[in-house]
Amino acid sequence: MSDTTNERKIEHIRAIEKDPAIERDHRYFDRIHLTHRALPELDLDAIDPAVEILGKKLSFPLLISSMTGGDHELVCRINRNLAEAAEHCQVAMAVGSQRVMFTNPAARESFDLRPFAPTALLMGNIGAVQFNYGFGEQQCLEAVQLLNADALYLHLNPLQEAVQPEGDVNFSRLADQIATVSAKLPVPVILKEVGSGLSQADVALGLSAGIRYFDVAGTGGTSWSRIEHHRRGNNNDDLGLKFQDWGLPTPLALELLEPYQGQATLIASGGLRDGIDMAKSVILGASLCGLAAPLLQPAMESAEAVIAKIEQLRREYVTALFLLGMPDTASLFRNQALIVKAR
């Protein structure tokens, strides 16, 4: 594999395997305390955790967040296992950056997932910064068509690009280009950070560009800054470590974006680790909850291992609803009365 974009995908996975501290695991959601109901007045087996988003009904509000893609047996296996699990469990899945399929045509196979997930909610993924490096409507359309995607992520990763040795760092005038491209695509566009959070100013710019879906992807989970630190190749260069925890924690980002509810649909990702974090995210206004790190190792094993993990997450989420006295996801959404406030 001579293509550096393709090689980078494997380097990212290997960095995660060798450095547990890449998963920052700050547990920001643990600082949120919920009202336990000793008398929930509910039948646990009757709770309905389903949700509808982007025109599809999900069994519960789980999104398998973007991980990888490329011309390598490992990443193909990971994506297929995730896709098969998404279909079986009826949850959403977003692929990793599809930029690699334009520099290495053999990488397209890793994104050709609709045969493995014929009815699942699938999301394509292109880095928005690539609009300043020759990408545009055509590449986005190809990414959507290959996956037969229901939506397209345009990911925003200025910190990762700033630390990445070969990073693309020209983020100027992207909002105008996002508006132009998104207006021409046949599917909704979702603006997504990759681990540093979206601010109010970011969402305001996105709304002005015609975007209505936003994945806050806050800090607290996987640190792409620390991942890229391992690729800089200079032991005296600690830029990636200095910024490894930079950004807005996901719960704080959701709280800050509460004024945009009604205009924007929010997705929570970044530091979510279990069904309790998912429940807290829905309370804070998330319509969908993205997890990646807890599913990566199972995805290396088999679709069955991913399914088992998703079923565990679903049990945790439904149990949280039961203990809060909430019969369904709809009653949980934005119900901040469930949060215990300090006196």
- Helix and strand sequence: HEEEHEHEHEHHEHEHHHEHEHHH
Mean pLDDT: 95
Outline type = globular
Question: Which class best fits the helix and strand makeup?
Answer: alpha/beta
**Uncertain segments:** none
The major beta sheet can be summarized as:
8 strands, parallel, barrel
Helix content: 25-40%
Estimated share of beta-strand residues? 5-15%
Strand order, sheet with most strands:
3-4-5-6-7-8-9-10
How far apart the termini lie comes to 59 Å
The value of Rg in angstroms is: 19 Å
Number of distinct helices: 14
Total strand count, please? Answer: 10
How would you characterize the overall build of this protein?
By secondary structure, the chain is an alpha/beta fold. It is built from 14 helices and 10 strands. An 8-stranded parallel barrel has the order 3-4-5-6-7-8-9-10, surrounded by 5 helices. A two-stranded antiparallel sheet has the order 1-2. Helix 2 packs across helix 13. It is globular and about 60 Å long. The termini are far apart. The model has no long low-confidence stretch (mean pLDDT 95).
Please supply descriptive tags for the structure shown above.
343 residues; alpha/beta; two-stranded antiparallel ribbon; 14 helices; 13% strand; globular
Give a quick rundown of the structure.
The protein has 343 residues and is of the alpha/beta class. It contains 14 helices and ten strands.
Write the layout of secondary structure elements.
Layout (H helix, E strand, L loop, with lengths): L3 H15 L32 E3 L2 E3 L3 E3 L8 H17 L2 E3 L5 H4 L18 E6 L9 H11 L3 E6 L1 H6 L10 H9 L6 E5 L6 H9 L4 E3 L8 H6 L9 H4 L7 H7 L8 E5 L5 H9 L2 E6 L1 H9 L1 H22 L4 H4 L11
Parallel strand pairs: 3-4, 3-10, 4-5, 5-6, 6-7, 7-8, 8-9, 9-10
Antiparallel strand pairs: 1-2
